[in-house]
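Protein modeling request. Please complete all fields; requests missing the sequence field cannot be processed.
Requester role: graduate student
Desired output: 3D structure, token encoding
Chains: 1
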Amino acid sequence: MNSSSKIRVGVIGVGRIGKLHIEHLAQNIPEAELVAISSLNRPIAESVAEQYNVPMVTTDYNTLLSDTRIDAVLVTSSTHTHVEISQAAAKAGKHIFCEKPIAFDLEQIDETLAVIEKAGVKFQVGFNRRFDTSFKRIREAVASGEIGEPHIMRITSRDPAPPPIEYVKVSGGIFLDMTIHDFDMARYLIADEVIEVYAAGGVRVDPKIGEAGDIDTTVITLRFQNGVIGTIDNSREAVYGYDQRVEVFGSKGMVTAANPPTDTVTFSGSEGSRAASPPYFFLERYKPAFLSELQAFFTSIRDDTLPPVTATDGRAPVVIGIAALKSLRENRPVLLSEI
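Delivered output (339 residues):
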């Protein structure tokens, strides 16, 4: 496209992620112009549109897609709508940024990716943690050989509080809702494919999560094609805040990423010392990463390059998540080739 013209964007969905993306589009990404918002909740959409001077609001995303002036769309609606909207957007010739996961069903994902490939549009999946500066530094340390041959990878990912039970019921389960970010991070850090998964889990936080058919606490072992062994531990409730840590250990050393504190102040007194907790939730922790992933998406459109998180990257963590669920239910290691 013309390098001097702005990329005109429509956002479909105005939940908490949609609102954050809209804020970044309006304030922090000069090469993009937010021209339309679509949401079934028209009052909220109109309120957001008024706040950021967005000229078009609609409750029907097809109205947005039929506007030939729009170059790209952000799909930030509920997961169960991602397939339908992404396929329609591709057929309308729009470049697509889609929040994770594309879908819970592999057949639907493959069908969607085939439609996107046929349309020849850009497609990026919203795995924002890849764009965190600390995690990128660890990836570079592994890729450059700085730590030698990687042997062990560890990821800790714990939420400060469990989600509402009504959300749990439609979330796809912990592996496809929460751990999916960690499955993607594992592939990203090691730059290799997982071949085997073993998952142990239970209900340690809220019995209602178990009644809804899910778990809230899990430890997962991953075996990579190159021999690296990985572990992921998840909890739906860490009372001290949003806990996000990574470690890769190799033949020449180790790299780790700790939680960033909300401030760097330490208080010391007669009863000891205390320091700040980690950020409370993901919007605080990863706000810069959400911006960086959008910037990368628009750069791929502008430069006609492959987006940094591809359709393949969007599919692979879903396969791992399905394998993890099978492993949990059958109490055994599961090869991804079984899925």
